[in-house]
TrEMBL record:
Pfam families: 4HBT_3, 4HBT_3C. This is Thioesterase family protein. Residues 150-245 form the Acyl-CoA thioesterase-like C-terminal domain. It comes from Nocardia coubleae. Residues 29-100 form the Acyl-CoA thioesterase-like N-terminal HotDog domain.
Amino acid sequence: MVSFFNWDGDRLAAQQLAVSPWAPSKLSGTGICGVLARELETQCPVGFTPARLTVDLYQPVSTSAFDLSSVVVRQGSRIAVVDASLSQDGHQRARASAVFLTAADQPPGHVWSPEQDLPVPPQGCSAPQGSPPLFKSGDSDWTSDFAANQNAERKATWQSLPPLVDGEPITAFQRAAIMGDVTSLVCHWGSEGAGYINTDVTVALSRLPVGHELGLRADSTIAAAGVSIGAATLYDRQGPVGTCVVTALSNARRQIDFAATSSAELSFRRAGA
């Protein structure tokens, strides 16, 4: 079965799904977010659920072997905080933190929340073990055609992800973490392609997603002087799950033109297949 990583002895080895479309010798943010979420998840206390994940992507990670570590910062009766890091060649390349919370009754009363009109494709459009990603621009139909979505319209994507690690079922938290990095694609893919790379990713969850499919819809993009903030709603077939926010840096010299670059298109098809 296709996966982002498989085992090479006691270390994870990157597969094609985990390779960056920007540079074939580096890992993509999707895979990095996924394995850091996996490491953090090993420290989740019984009865707690992931509520917030933040990943700092401050150094490139090559496709060679890497090490993961994690530490419990604090565990209380209702809140637990865990840090994790990814190191390579003796140097820390990325780090992450997670907040795990226990469930409780909702407080009384009503608060304002926006009406959510989240686009969902028909049932049966994706396989549980992973399928090519679908995209939607503006009022157009869902399609896996990248060229048809290279425009300045508001974007959404619908994805069923393969396993993160070969031989392990992908967890709901891992799915959410991987989709968090995809926020940059739905928020920063425009009429000339994609020209921003993530420097950090935050996924805030009110609940874990249900089922093998996840949607992501762009909500806002705010950019100036080569720095952009993208925010998107993460959702499943039952409704909103949480919010994803990325801070991204201009990478205009390596802008990816999905309408013209078949290799980049193939890479992203694999990344969501």
